[in-house]
Design a protein that fits this description.
The chain is about 50% helix and about 15% strand. It is globular, with a radius of gyration of 22 Å. Strands 3-2-1-4-8-6-9 form a seven-stranded mixed β-sheet, sandwiched between helices. The two termini are about 40 Å apart. It contains 14 helices and twelve strands. It folds into two domains: about 120 residues, no CATH class; about 190 residues, Spore Coat Polysaccharide Biosynthesis Protein SpsA, Chain A. By secondary structure, it is α/β, with parallel strands linked by helices.
Length: about 375
Amino acid sequence: MTFHWSDPQDGILLFLLVLLLIACSNLWFFKRPSKFYHVSHWPHVAVLIPARNEAHNLPQCLESIHQQDYPGRLEVWVLDDDSSDGTGDIAAHFAVKDNRFHYLRGAPLPEGWLGKHWACQQLAEATKAEIFLFLDADTILTPSAVQRAVAAFEVDRVDLLSLVPYEVMRTWGERLIQPFFLWAMLAFYPLGLAFHLRWADLSFTIGQFLMIRRQTYFTIGGHAAIRNIVVDDLALGRNTVRAGFRWRLMDGGELVRCRMYRSWREVFAGFAKNLFAVFNYRVLPFLFVLGWLGWVFLQPWGVIGMYGLGVPSAFSLQKALAAILASLMLFGLIYARLRIPLYLILFYPLTIGISILIGLYSCLLTLRGASVWKGRQLVKPRIRWL
């Protein structure tokens, strides 16, 4: 098996080698919050939860916060964003049960705002806490989660900390599609460089568990500055980096678990809402990345299929097998780190293929201005070709 720069299969193998190096480095830089941090001062923390039709998730989430062993002052604010399923009643019940809990009824949605962003802005303005912890209603915390996150936050002297939860996946739609985002994060984002170079486009934050200093939040304009950007967690992180603040992304799988979606339909709709937005609605770069993903991860299987059918091919069978082996190694390293069942690496071509289809659908929906989430029409963003 010989290698040459002009051989497209060699390009695939070289690219996979780079991704393997990034993934291996991320195994080191993707830290877990330590159990042994010493903190001299425990700041006042407010857990902020925007909730719209979350009656099936909210009780477990709030009960897990009720059981926190955080040694400092902790308060919880839940905003009912015009729910129709009893979400407000659940939040009000916890406010009576525990005086640390507060229930807000959301104000009408202003023009030009996305619902969650408006809810988060109202929550931030309702409290005087030193640190905001934005939490999705489908997250569940272990009793030490807030304490260990705040300790990491203070000891590392960061202004924004995002924890990646353990993602609960029970349907095949979740298992095949949901790992894609986290896999892409650990395969494509060199965290060591991102933490030190402070390039906004290299930052990666997750809104399921996002901790930020009050001063930092209002300095960067809060959610008001990103009121119509769908991926608010990424946008908030990028604004933090642009303003010169420090950030970290850590492995919170031991502390936080979350079940984002519960069916094929939900996971498809959720990814269709976000995938194009991650690229800031730049059409040509987005389509190039989707095409390149297909070429790198699906082309080798096409070569195998051609040889299996006896169809003459100019491509090397050995190089195709080497690319498949490298892909399995890449998916295996990352899935093992994230505690995703390893048997799912055998289905990586499906994960890539379905994600490409969702990406194309996401782009089409956005171009048509037809994106909807939780019963609300999303604001049509500014589309750019480059």
